[in-house]
Amino acid sequence: MSDQVIPTGIEVSNSDQVLEIEWSDGHHSEYPLFGLRKNCPCVTCRGGHGNMNSFDRSLFFVDPTQNFEVEDIKQIGNHAIKIFWNDGHNNGMYQWGTLRDMCPCKECYPEQA
What we know:
Elements: E1 7-13, E2 18-23, E3 28-32, H1 33-38, H2 43-46, E4 70-76, E5 80-85, E6 93-95, H3 96-101
Antiparallel strand pairs: 1-2, 2-3, 4-5, 5-6
């Protein structure tokens, strides 16, 4: 566990439509809420167990068709957070590794437009 990169701070701004994470290695991630909600890691949103741990990073760069708001965030053990969305959905458990892997910054995702 000591070698794992973990969040040292998580902030959400519904007005700016972004969730920000500071990581223990000094990296900073900003996730647009639309892309984060559309990449919910739960089995229902992923379309079955075969699609678990898959996500579409391009959803962080689309003009959102709707705004999502975070009503609450709960830490799950030492490995994840559960986000309670304003559309009533709260099944997704966003593991640290998944969040870091889907970071949409230019350093982590140089293919972005």
